[in-house]
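Assemble and predict.
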Amino acid sequence: MRAPARLATYALLVAGAAVFITPFAWMLSTALKPLDQTLAQPPEWLARRYEARLGGVLQEVRPGGLVTEPSLWALERGSAQPVALAEASVRDGAWQPTSGLAVPVEVLKAIPASASAPWREIGDLSGAHRDVVPAASVSSRIALRWENFPGAIRAMRRFPRYLANTLVLCVLNVVGTVLSSALVAYGFSRLEWRLRDPLFGLLLATMMIPFPVVMVPLYGLFRWLGWIGTLKPLWVGSFCSSAFNVFLLRQFFRTIPRDLSEAARIDGCGEFRIFWQIILPLCRPALVVVALFTFMGTWNDFLGPLIYLTDERDFTLALGLRVMQTTGSGGIEWNYMMAASTLVILPVIALFFVAQRSFIEGIALTGTKA
Amino acid sequence: MTAGDRQRTRFGLAFVSPWLVGFAAFTLYPVGASLYYSFCDYDVLSKPVWVGLLNYRDMASDGVFWHSVANTLLFNLMALPLGLVSALALALLLNQPVRARGVFRAIYYLPSLVPAVASAMIWLWILNGRLGLLNTALGVVGIHHPPQWLADPAWTKPSLALMSVWGCGNTVVIYLAALQGVPRSLMEAAMIDGASSWDRLVHVTLPAISPVIYFNLVIGIIGGLQVFVPAFIMWGGEGPDRSVLFYAVYLYQNAFDYRQMGYACAMAWMLCALILALTWIASLSSRRLVYYQGD
């Protein structure tokens, strides 16, 4: 490749990668901020901790707006709370509000601010005390709020339950799908029998049926069984294999030489033993792919739990995130929301890095074998 | 049939029995029942009452239904070409002899693994009209009245299309696998004949991977017509001016919010018909445009 073309390729790849990473970076950035900094404009990428003297004590403060004009910091008469900043100028040898304040006030502090020496409003973390100090006296440093993660877990209230439910479903679905799909795929690939090919055609045809078609009768069926509001509708079916995984495994099983089975049969090996002790170990990579996809599908599933689960104690993490979004009073706490999202995404990403090759090969397989 | 035949059939049936049970309980029965319910008034609580074609006739005169059809088609008209083309472009880039290909591939692939709920949350935050990262970035480059991505009915579908591009890594990997299967001999022959890189793309690469493009298109149509989760989470279902009331969302509402299960089943069958019709159109064009090696 010529040098300019090469350069252009890299430039495009890097630009694209930056765009694809940004949402993750922004999620993490927000997850590590205090709430007030999530609302700051313009936004900053790294959370900061601000410190200043408030009430004579050096402490962490919430910074407010900058004051760049000469002003008065006033106290409403008879109240302990500072109420207003008003533009001011020196008249008759004393500071006077330029415009009249609406309520009778006592002047607390005259602020000779200018654009080059701005002052800054600050407040303590509870919001009870406020003050205006020279902006230069407010120090800040980068401080990531890792405590937002435990905070988000508490905000999600039943996080441990959601996690436990999700994990139980993942384990049951992975075990059920891998075992049953391998068994069925074996029957459809390594055995010769009448009806095999028409039945396999039927199995392929079932892949074409969109979920909404069976949604209502399945709901009715599970309701009749008394399973609505339990986890059962979300895993029992996995023990009946799934067409897509059967198809995937069958492709793999077919690549194993027939002689292997024949030799075992001649040695008196039963069909189930051939399946369990010879074919399965040889198909480990394919089984890993099925297990991975099933895990991901279960971990990510939203519609299934939404339809079948009624009690919040049975919810999965995916539903839990939604609960957190819809039950927050007075606006979403985006730092907690992003921290919770990070927690839901993290296992998936970790799994990808552990089993990257299986993922990529599995995906490629679905496309090229079709 | 010999005794051996019979025994082999017994073995075969035994091995596939989990699927047979599942097929009967979770496919055959529901499909049959769904077809029956689609001709009934049914709310799950009481017995279905036969009403003939009423549900289908209602659908024809239900303005909201047609609105959901239009929303769904319009969204797919944006998202599908955008997704297919960007995925193909990324795959073509990744297929160049570049360093750290694995790293790039991982970066492009990762978003497609993100659970739909989490991805909806992230984008709700990024697309936020006042505080969102996207509008802030647009402000930096001088666009001071950026779109209200989530609140303006004209922008909700483009927002979702944008999100779906972020999740196109799956498709990228499928394309990449196909690109690596393009016969080297063809490429070299084209180079010797002095074909430019554009000519090689149009006359060698694209025809060689056209079956996979077709596959991704069909998968995209089937998935795209059933789009549900992002709209349901980000807008609670309908969105401003019902602009994200998609087919699957309206179907869900009929089934579980309005308890019109019969109507929902009828809608599901129409969805089936719609999917079949669109994939049929795609297959018609594929006859001319898709090149199968060995044909």
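DSSP finds 14 helices and nine strands in chain A.
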